[in-house]
Amino acid sequence: MNTTEFLLISSSICPDRDLVVFEGKRWTFAQTSERVNRLANALMGLGVEKGDRIGFLQVNCNEAIEAYFAAAKLGAIFVPLNFRAKADELTYMLNNAEAKALMVGNRYLDMVDGMLPNLKSVQHCIALEEEAEGKIHYETLLGSSSADEVFTDIQDDDITILMYTAGTTGLPKGVPLRHTGFVSYILENVQPADPEVEERNLLTVPLYHIAGIQAMMAAIYGGRTLVLMKQFEVKEWMDTVQREGATRAMLVPTMLKRVIDDPDFENYNLTSLEVITYGAAPMPFEVIDRAIKMLPWVRFINAFGQTETASTITTLGPEDHIIEGTEEEKAKKLRRLSSSIGKPLSDVEVRIVDPEGNALPTGDVGEIVAKGPRVMTGYWHDEEKTAKAMTKDGWLRTGDKGWMDDEGYIYLAGRGDDMIIRGGENIAPGEVENVLYSFPKIEEAAVIGVPDPEWGQDVRAVVVLKQGETATVEEIIEYCRSRLAGFKRPRSVVFVDSLPRNPMGKVLKRLLREEFGK
After folding, report:
1. Smaller CB count within 10 Å for the chain: N or C?
2. Distance (Å, rounded) from C-alpha 164 to C-alpha 401?
3. What is the CB neighbour count within 10 angstroms for residue 49?
4. Which residues of 127-150 are buried (b: 16+ CB within 10 A; e: fewer)?
5. What is the torsional sign of CA 446, 451, 454, 457?
6. Tens digit of pLDDT at every position of the chain (518 positions)
7. Number of C-beta neighbours around residue 16 at 10 A
8. In the chain, what's the furthest Cα-to-Cα distance?
């Protein structure tokens, strides 16, 4: 089975049900299926073939869903791009992917125009909204093409999405995701479309993020209506839940905190919500504890995973969010709620191992590794990073430290690398450090993550100024503003005389975190 069958099956079962609700417009499963076929035929007419890569740069919208399934029907590979990334980052990703076509939203057209001379492989640039000079107009393309079904020989192990995730070196890593990865998760965890059961999934997580893609796939296979928001805004989110009667939502911890902190929270009727899934970043205990009390009718699920695992590999389920029983049972559940990522799902194996890859006994801290049909087989065109991430027998080194209790629950114990996760976004310290090093007054720089009750983590720069130079915190932050995506920019700066290093010259970030990471 491949992912194109998700749409085909659901369109047959509930053709007249809304599939997408977006900015006051609605498209049924049948209408979306027709638009997907028109786009697939149009792309085929432009010379897009099986294995070609199609870049997509836009906030959440119905076209993102159409573009994914059109690409999948051709056996092409969809490349969703982080719309917060800067031109240099996007240029690198598109060249690394060797994208043949690029679909672009209005707000990014000027940036893309500046990038195009450096995009070696892009042959077609498609404007998703208004007509633009030198671009193919999306709706015109659909209007001039056939709605006939497109058939391609697609194998379950074919790559369907190439998703970029930040690496510790600063360069994004391409993660090839296969049809079988999504199919494995969906068939094990989602009920198929039912003409008698209607659910409405409010999606604010970006579709360039694995959590957004997983939610989209689950909704389409499950015959759920996807209520899309371009980006998260708290009052709009609550208004949309109330107006559309949303039954499901996925939130990163920062979003959930904003909902329960909003002074108008009590003025909205959110009782249609049945399930809230959260993840993508550490959840502060005080936030989930308050959320459970303020939304007592909601079933909460903590989902843990990575791009490399096609998203969720462990869950802390609704039953683990109900703090009942004896005092001992309550204490156990509170401990799990504060630091556990739950138990592995049935289609993946998860272990805690020592540096040599040997399984560790219950309670011992080691690296979390995962294996299964959803786990990637390697990074895109990068044997060196693949060798570091994958064992010879197919286990993925997640880079996260953890331990397992005697009931199979896994607890996080920190990251094995220096990755910072802010509001669900991965931030590679090396990339931020490179920008800091380019500041004329800075001699040395290191970047660490510090706890933040709203974002999970924030970026802190620890810098050594050149002899005789002076600089302010505001000056350094402003310098980074125009050179880094907003979520990557340092929010605080600490000045030191020197950075701690080992005999080989490597900065000892553990010591920096101990001194400045609070």
Report:
1. C
2. 23
3. 12
4. bbbeebeebbbbeebbeebeeeeb
5. positive
6. 999 999 999 999 999 999 999 999 999 999 999 999 999 999 999 999 999 999 999 999 999 999 999 999 999 999 999 998 889 999 999 999 999 999 999 999 999 999 999 999 999 999 999 999 999 999 999 999 999 999 999 999 999 999 998 654 467 899 999 999 999 999 999 999 999 999 999 999 999 999 999 999 999 999 999 999 998 899 999 999 999 999 999 998 878 988 998 999 999 999 999 999 998 766 767 789 899 999 999 999 999 999 999 989 999 999 999 999 999 998 889 889 888 999 999 999 999 999 999 999 999 989 999 999 999 999 999 999 999 999 999 999 998 888 999 999 999 876 666 778 898 887 878 778 878 988 999 988 999 999 998 899 999 999 999 899 999 999 999 999 988 999 999 999 999 999 987 543 568 888 999 999 88
7. 10
8. 73
Identify the residue whose tokens are 């706890």.
Answer: 451
Q: For the whole model, what pTM was predicted? A: 0.83
Q: What share of the chain is helix, strand, coil (3-state, %, to 5)?
A: 35, 25, 40
